Amino acid sequence: MTRLTGVILATLMLLGGCDGATPSDQAPLWRAEGKTMGTYYRVLVANPPAAALTGLNGAIEQQLAEDNHQISTWQDDTILSRFNRYRGTDPQPITTGIADIVSTALRIGAKTGGAMDITIGPLVNLWGFGPEKQPTKTPDAQQIESARARVGLGHLRLIETSNGQWLQKSVPDMYVDLSTVGEGYATDHLAALLEQRGITRYLVSVGGAVLTRGVSSSQQPWRVAIQHATDESVAAEAVVDLQGHGISTSGSYRNYYELEGKRISHVIDPVTGRPIDHKLVSATVIATTALEADGWDTCLMVLGTEKAKQLALQEGLAVFLITKTEQGFTTWMSPQFSSFIISQSDKGA
Ligand code: FAD
């Protein structure tokens, strides 16, 4: 098992690819890390061209701040917060970045019958996972229904022309929440920044999303471990070589709170308007981009184990699921996922 060199991000652990090679065999990894979007980012670079590192730290921080300024609903002066506050139905101008995110989210939402629904903001806020405070008592049916009335992908329209991009809502008090895909987008965007500087061997992560390219400084593949689905253990459930892909995990055992004796998950089912309460506790997706992986993982969490398996097989997705059972946990992976596996816990979760 390779040495753990990173932090545990959401439910992924970054293994810097050090495989026991002696330090002299490998130039040290260049690294940058810090806080962003209410979580953490990390950039590991192997053997960069010398000029590529000039001002790289500052460029990373600035780009993350700009991404935040576009899509955060946790700050009032962002493009998305202004769209959410706007109470009309005229098309509102957005950036190409937001258009890329929304286009991916609408496509995945349509394929999942709306299980992944970025217009879910009123329900996320009602259940206390947005910038507003947590409820002190369980929202009642009437509160859920009035929040649900403001939700639905059919009420959101993305307009893309050669002159620009716009978002248009048909429900004036719609509230778009990009929390489920923002980290994936920021990860891909940081990778593009590195590539523009001629860097071709890197591992980038923002929150629970990771993207790699090339090999680490010891010529070994970048390795990412999927953590056991419990808060207590940092053991790896499986270790994968991303082979230049993106990976993202959505889990229901970290981001939750207790209310009136019930565990309230941050993943909300748009159909019921309530947090999920089934036994699927972690869904990991590997895809060509971190944004794509980040979009699919949450919708699989909404669907639950059996429907998630069906969707993964139907869409040919690389998926790793961890389901809670009476005895502990069971895992399942799609055929596409197994091609990325380097090692898997023999305990089978
Ligand atoms: P995932 O499991 O990938 O998705 C769950 C999140 O998506 C939920 O938290 C909810 O917001 C939303 N969601 C729930 N159900 C659905 C559904 N059915 N369809 C679509 N979306 C759904 N957090 C802070 O505490 N402070 C901050 O300052 C802050 N700033 C942020 C800025 C940005 C730009 C973004 C994108 C997020 C920010 N966040 C902040 C939120 C935080 O980073 C995470 O996004 C959040 O905690 C969920 O992370 P996750 O990977 O567990 O989400």
Layout of secondary structure:
Elements (H helix, E strand, L loop, with lengths): L7 E2 L2 E4 L14 E7 L2 E7 L10 H16 L7 H7 L6 E3 L1 H16 L9 H6 L14 H8 L7 E6 L2 E6 L9 H18 L5 E5 L2 E5 L9 E5 L8 E6 L4 E6 L4 E4 L2 E4 L2 E2 L4 E2 L4 E8 L2 H14 L1 H11 L2 E7 L4 E5 L1 H4 L2 E4 L5
Antiparallel strand pairs: 1-2, 2-10, 3-4, 4-8, 5-7, 6-7, 8-9, 9-12, 10-11, 11-20, 12-17, 13-14, 15-16, 17-18, 18-19
Helix pairs in contact: 1-6, 3-7, 6-7, 7-8
The chain binds flavin-adenine dinucleotide.
The site of flavin-adenine dinucleotide (FAD) has 32 residues, from helix 1, helix 6 and helix 7.
CATH H-tier superfamily of the largest domain = ApbE-like domains
* Ligands, deduplicated: flavin-adenine dinucleotide
Output the number of helix runs: 9
The level 1 CATH classification of the largest domain is: Alpha Beta
What structural category do the secondary elements indicate? Answer: alpha+beta
Give the SSE string. Answer: EEEEHHEHHHEEHEEEEEEEEEEHHEEHE
Poorly predicted runs are 1-11, 17-25
- End-to-end CA span: 17 Å
- Number of distinct beta strands: 20
